[in-house]
Design goal:
869 residues; two-stranded antiparallel ribbon; mainly alpha; 3-stranded mixed β-sheet
């Protein structure tokens, strides 16, 4: 272990430095330059206004964070100036409410995320060409510059470099140079946002004509729906077209909140509906008026909104039970209960556009309604006068009046201030985003501790024990943060914390950390705590940064609405992934030891590199075929889906062979650097047999093996190094075995309980649903190495290799069924997208590690030439 001690200590210190710098630097810190708006207490109070969004009542703060992140890509909006530098920083609540109050300002600001450079070029190409033409048309522009501008205008893939190269040789006026410098800045890859006005004005070349950006997006949406229903009905969307749909949805989201249209997707539903006698009597006026109107849009906003609520209820009940309010007492009672408990709330736009007297006729209480409208107008005036910096009084008045009106309309179901404040506190503290800091610190300090005495706590000196203790405290801190986060999340949602992919990822991180902490308290060898910190850090960072993992708390699918089954089935099943993840991380640690270990001989670099002969060409052909399927070599080389999968398999296999060979070469290099003075004469046969026995399956030894192990032998440097590796890997294999046992126990129980739930919900215990099948496959896959090890058929290295390889079945059951297959009764867990290509590269890269270790171990355990008869 001494050979690795300095490396581990150095690596851990570097990691600790990174974590420390990240901890003392607030996210998004920009120095004192940019103006920071919305940071005062006024916006904290506005953020606590209760609204209904996506079927759930939540603080405005939560809605603002979700919608601003969807439009801008981050929760905090940073507006850029002409030099592409941050000019203003807006908190999510301030930005969101300012969208509503001052849309004329935001329409010209670049904050709509367009992070795909080819799409941004396509959007900007029309305005840029118009700017080129305007500059070329000026009489003061030189003839040479006019000619070069005409050539630039014909470039389809125009980039910033081409514009800047033109400016270097041009003789333009200062104002024109500044305009083209702005064009170049917008074409840079780090300029990822465009303004709503730029998107509205963009003309996209589509076929033989130009059309508005949103019209193009609407056609792409229709094409996507047709392709999803049947690939023969429409062509597959290109990457540019897919990204265009995303940008179109962002622009539509902003316009729904800032514009005048009553789009249901972008309405701030701020008040529950009245359901008393006055509300029902209001329909006696609205319904006759609607039946005689030439256009329903002629109704007032409050009348049209009340009619929509009635139509929604009518659609949910049998036709025989449909009556006009006021005609049937039984219907009125049911409809009033539905209005109180299940109907969506009234939008803010409806309340603002309605006359106060009309609202009172619709059932809203007089005093509270007028107070709320007055408070909102005062807030709107304050925001217009001092955007992002209003005093707390108008915000406090709006919050108090909205709560007073909400309680007056629906005292039973309007949320309490405590419930809203709890979610606001959860958003502000954000424990799941803080946990990676603690886990990162734990990982760094435990890596340092592992450098002392091979991680044996009892043999560490004062410094080693200090780092180990601090690492354990940091790990406990991460566990505490996650537990607090789950406590708040459960209080907010009312459900067990495994209802979507995001929650399962952070739950796996928590359970892995807890298992590692418990194992470390029992065995005191640092390995499990280090592995658990790594898994927890990976899980929490993934949850915080992968856009597909949506942290929003949403309404549950009906099939999931059982806390009993969520707890005993889903929690159990997902917790098994944590145990298998811990075994996987321990296996990777052991793999690194095997990869850099000393064996009987040191193979030459030529021997180690030999798999590159078939591997790299196979990888190259596979990558070339995949590129052809995306049209990289032109339409004549485009291939269909079957060949695409063939080439993908070739690329994966060739890539694993090639990268595994590179890892083997790197491991040999590290071994030679850290094992100076070890010659290639080989280890004495008796001692070699004794060391090798530790890595063999546990079978009854022969008489010769007993004699060889009993014979005294003097260890040379190579023998000592081999013995050291065996001593390090042995406890790792034991921990892997224990973690696998825990995982198998949990997944077996979870699969059986899932069958019972399926029988309760769907009327059958087992239906060969993909999620069920892959849970069973995962159980069987892990039973093989466990039974093999118990029976003595699987060596220590075999168990290590299996801990990494078997985790692929967990990835398939957890990620693959949701993101790759996307079929089955468990469709409530499916998410569109999934970045399958990126995930495939990551998995192949990880599997290359044990493959490289196996190849180097195989060559290293060949008998040295000097001992061959």
């Amino acid at each position: 272990m001494r050979r690795y001690g300095r490396l581990l200590v150095g690596t851990g210190l570097c990691g600790l430095l990174v974590v420390t710098v990240a901890a003392v630097t607030p996210p998004g810190h920009e120095g004192a330059g940019p103006a920071k708006l919305g940071v005062g207490p006024a916006y904290d109070r506005i953020g606590r206004v209760a609204v209904m969004h996506n079927g759930r009542v939540k603080p405005l703060d939560t809605v603002a964070r979700e919608e601003v992140k969807q439009v801008f890509g981050r929760e905090t909006v940073k507006l850029l100036d002409d030099r592409n530098e941050v000019a203003e920083t807006w908190t999510p609540v301030a930005a969101f409410v300012d969208w509503i109050v001052r849309p004329e300002f935001w329409d010209s600001q670049p904050f709509i995320l367009v992070d795909y450079l080819p799409l941004k070029r396509k959007i900007l190409l029309g305005p840029i060409r118009a700017k080129f033409a305007a500059i070329a048309a000026r009489p003061e522009t030189a003839a040479e510059d006019k000619q070069r501008l005409a050539l630039l205008a014909d470039v389809e893939e125009l980039d910033a470099a081409a514009v800047l190269n033109f400016l270097k040789a041009s003789k333009l006026e200062a104002s024109d140079r500044k305009a083209l410098e702005d064009v170049a800045a917008k074409l840079l890859e780090d300029h990822k946002w465009l303004s709503p006005d730029e998107l509205d004005e963009a003309k996209i070349r589509h076929g033989d004509h130009d059309e508005a950006f949103m019209e193009w997006v609407a056609q792409l949406d229709e094409q996507k729906r047709k392709f999803d229903s049947s690939p023969t009905l429409a062509a597959r969307l290109t990457e540019v077209e897919k990204r265009a749909i995303d940008v179109g949805h962002r622009l539509a989201t902003y316009k729904a909140y800032s514009g005048e249209e009553m789009r249901s997707a972008g309405l701030v539903r701020i008040m529950p509906r009245p359901f008393g006698r006055e509300a029902l009597d209001f329909y006696k006026v609205v319904i006759p008026k609607a039946r005689t109107a030439a256009n329903l849009r002629d109704l007032s906003p409050i009348e049209f909104d009340a009619l929509k609520a009635l139509d929604t209820y009518w659609n949910d009940v049998p036709s025989d039970d449909r009556h006009d309010p006021g005609e049937d007492a039984a219907f009125d009672k049911k409809y009033a209960a539905w209005l109180a408990e299940n109907s969506v709330w009234t939008p803010l736009k409806v309340l603002l556009k309605a006359d106060p007297d009309a609202l009172i006729k619709a059932g809203y209480p007089d005093k509270e309604t007028r107070a709320f409208l007055d408070a909102y107008k005062a807030f709107e005036q304050a925001e217009n006068a001092a955007p992002g910096t209003i005093a707390v009084e108008p915000a406090e008045a709006l919050l108090a009046s909205s709560r007073a009106l909400g309680r007056a309309v629906n005292p039973t179901y309007y949320p309490t201030a405590e419930a809203i404040d709890r979610e606001s506190r959860f958003n502000a503290i954000n424990p799941f985003y803080q946990a990676p800091m603690a886990y990162g610190a734990a990982l760094a300090m435990l890596a340092i501790a592992l450098g002392f005495s091979g991680g044996r706590v009892a043999e560490m000196g004062t410094a080693g024990r200090a780092f180990h203790g601090l690492g354990m405290l940091a790990l406990l801190g991460g566990i505490g943060l996650e537990c607090y986060g789950f406590y708040l999340r459960i209080q907010i949602s009312g459900w067990a914390p495994v209802t979507n992919m995001y929650e399962t990822v952070i739950w796996v991180a928590l359970v892995a950390a807890v298992l590692a902490f418990v194992f470390e308290l029992v065995y005191r060898r640092t390995f499990t705590a280090l592995a658990g910190s790594g898994v927890a850090l990976l899980g929490t960072i993934t949850a915080a940064n992968v856009p597909l993992l949506d942290p929003s708390i949403k309404s549950l699918q009906p099939v999931l609405r059982s806390n009993l089954w969520l707890t005993i089935h889903v929690l159990t099943e997902v917790s098994s992934y944590a145990a298998f993840g811990l075994a996987w991380a321990l296996g990777l640690i052991a793999t690194v030891y095997y990869l850099t270990a000393t064996y009987r001989r040191s193979p030459s670099y030529g021997e180690l590199a030999s798999p590159l002969v078939p591997g790299f060409p196979l990888f190259s052909v596979g990558v070339g075929g995949m590129a052809a399927s995306y049209g990289a070599f032109g339409p004549n080389w485009t291939i269909g889906d079957p060949l695409f999968y063939v080439f993908s398999a070739m690329a994966a296999i060739g890539g694993m062979i090639s990268l595994g060979t590179v890892f083997a070469l790197a491991g040999e290099s590290v071994n030679r650097l850290t094992s100076r003075g070890i010659d290639d004469a080989g280890t004495p046969e008796s001692e070699a047999a004794r060391i090798a026995a530790a890595d063999r399956p546990k079978t009854r030894p022969t008489v010769e093996e007993i004699k060889a192990m009993a014979a005294p032998a003097t260890l040379d440097a190579r023998g000592k190094a081999m013995q050291e590796t065996a001593a390090m890997v042995k406890p790792l294999s034991n921990f892997i075995y224990r973690a696998m046992q825990v995982g198998v126990l949990l997944i077996a129980a979870g699969t059986i309980l899932g069958g019972v739930w399926a029988d309760y919900s769907w009327g059958r215990f087992w239906g060969w649903d993909p999620k069920e099948v892959w849970a069973l496959i995962t159980l069987l896959v892990y039973l093989v190495p466990l039974h093999g090890r118990f029976a003595g058929w699987v060596s220590t290295f075999g168990l290590v290799f299996a801990s990494v390889g078997c985790f692929l079945s967990v990835v398939m059951a957890w990620y693959g069924v949701n993101f790759v297959l996307g079929v089955g009764l468990h469709s409530y867990g499916f998410v569109e997208g999934g970045s399958q290509g990126v995930m495939g590269v990551i998995l192949c890269s990880i599997m290359a590690l044990p493959l490289g270790a196996a190849w180097r171990r195989k060559l290293g355990n060949l008998r040295p030439a000097s001992t061959v008869a």
